[in-house]
Amino acid sequence: MTTTTYPQVLTRRMTEHPADSHTLARYEATGGYQQARAAMGMTREQLVETVKESGLIGRGGAGFSAGMKWSFLAPPRPSYLVVNGDESEPGTFKDRQLLERDPHQMIEGIIIASVANEVHEAFIYIRGEYPKPARRVQHAIDEAYAAGYLGDGIFGSDYQLDVTVHLGGGAYICGEETALINSLEGRRGEPRLKPPYFPAAKGLYMLPTIVNNVETVSNLPHILEMGADAYKALGHDKDTGTFLFSVSGHVKRPGNYELPHGITWRELIFDIAGGMLDGRELKAWIPGGASAPWFVPEEHLDMPITKDDCGQAGSMLGSGAVIVMDDSTCMVKAAERVVRFFAHESCGQCTPCREGTTWMQQILARIEEGHGRAVDLDLLLDVSDNISPGLAWPPKMTTICPLGPSAVSPVTSLAKYFREEVEAHVTEGRCPLG
Q1: The whole model's pTM is what?
Q2: What gap in Å lies between CA 257 and CA 61, rounded to an integer?
Q3: If 0-12 CB within 10 Å is exposed, 13-18 middle and 19+ buried, where does residue 45 land?
Q4: Per-residue pLDDT tens over the stretch 311-350
Q5: Nearest to residue 262, comparing CAs of 240, 289, 246, 284?
Q6: Which of 60, 102, 200, 281 lies in the 20 to 30 Å Cα band around 179?
Q7: Cα four-point dihedral sign 149, 97, 164, 87
Q8: What is the pLDDT of residues 234-283, one digit of tens each?
């Protein structure tokens, strides 16, 4: 087990005060809402520049500079803030913990982001399968209204800010920001074309909109409290601050871990998450949620966990979900399960995704069930190439959003690292693992 102690920022309160970390009383007793008060006296330029200098990157998957995104916000006003809590990526459960156990931290971040972007109406979009986190957030919002921290004249100023909780219908695609906006407006959860529908220009109700992830917004009070330089010093040179990793699969200690980037995969999987169950061997892992191409120990175990290193190796850190697979895993079965998820969750708007993901799932199921043909892997790659031309990473797309190319990731990973296992399924007519 690791003896290294890493700084706890987002999870400190819930670790030190697990019984009542979600309450306003505990939040204020541990310094809460002081930074929101400070933000009331700052200009938009000062707040945007502070977040830029901190190096904060979005924690929802894209990893884009939060301050830079804010700076893109176009006139005219009003503008809106939407907090993306539609945590539907398989293997990801970090936002659930933040929503359920420290909602006031996010609400304070919403106030800071709203002041910075001249927002007077903010929305928190939470996945429909998160009833307890949604209740906790709504209760926290009610507490904030009663205390005068939301509503008219917040903190005794003339600033007005209303926050509304909206539960989604359980569609994975609504984690994509423009599909989320469509859903929030009461439309089908389908992505919009960018351009012209960049949310910072044409977002909610066709007005400028900032969409930030729950974890991203929750970092804002800490950036103001400690300052941009101290926040940067917490993490890696380029990936500043701490990150929540959701580790699941065949490890002894699955769970959420708040860590800096720059540690290695070996440290995360073996030292922090405890290594493999039952003395098994590590076979592969998905580094950034089900959308990400897979990693294998022979090539990647001692690689630093950073956005750049992961990108150069042909994958991504995404939403921070790490799904670990040991040597008992049938890789064809694992790929089929991931592709089946994306086929089911396709909104159907784009033909390559709507049709191609279903074909891919059917071919993988045929191989897994012992009825595969020698041409099937090449057929899988051909279908994949029609969804994501060139099969490179980051993906090129024939679709409006990345859902289709996300389904391609397990197929290219199979072909790159586990071709012999696929061929054995075909020649033996069964899984070679028994």
Answers
A1: 0.95
A2: 17
A3: exposed
A4: 999 999 998 999 999 999 999 999 999 999 999 999 999 9
A5: 240
A6: 102
A7: positive
A8: 988 889 999 999 999 999 999 999 999 999 999 999 999 999 999 999 99
Write the secondary structure of 205-264 as one string of H (helix), E (strand) and C (coil): HHCCEEEEEHHHHHCHHHHHHHCHHHHHHCCCCCCCCEEEEEEEECECCCEEEEEEECEE
List the domain boundaries for the chain.
12-233, 242-326, 331-428
Q: Return the bridge partners of 124, or none.
A: 83, 165
Residues 377 and 373: their CA atoms lie apart, in Å, by: 8
Q: Kindly state the DSSP code that residue 193 receives in the 8-state scheme.
A: P
Q: How far apart are CA 352 and CA 371, in angstroms?
A: 25
> CA 165 to CA 131: how far, in whole Å?
12
Q: Which two tokens stand for residue 326?
A: 């040991």
For residue 29, CA distances in Å to 13, 33, 384 come to 10, 10, 54
375 SS3 class: coil
- What is the enclosing helix (H) or strand (E) of 357? helix 351-368
- Residue 373: other Cβ atoms inside 10 A: 12
What ranges make up the beta strands (E) of 143-190?
A: 162-167
- Could you tell me the two tokens for 7? 């700084």
Q: Are the C-beta atoms of 136 and 142 separated by less than 8 Å?
A: no
Q: Cis peptide leading into 196, omega within 30 of 0?
A: yes
Q: What is the pLDDT of residues 46-89, one digit of tens each?
A: 999 999 999 999 998 888 899 999 999 998 788 999 999 999 99
Query: Which residues touch 10 (CB under 8 Å, ≥6 apart)?
Result: 98, 102, 105, 215, 218, 219, 222, 242, 244, 258
For residue 105 the two structure tokens come to: 């931290």
> What fold, for 331-428?
de novo design (two linked rop proteins) (1.20.1440)
Which of helix, strand or coil describes residue 11? coil
Evaluate whether 242-326 and 331-428 have a shared fold.
no
Instruction: Say if residues 377 and 415 touch (Cβ distance below 8 Å).
Output: yes
Domain 12-233: state its class: alpha beta
Question: CA-CA distance, 212 to 19, in Å (whole number)?
Answer: 28
Domain at 242-326, CATH from 3.10.20.600, 3.40.630.10, 3.40.50.450, 3.90.1150.10: 3.10.20.600
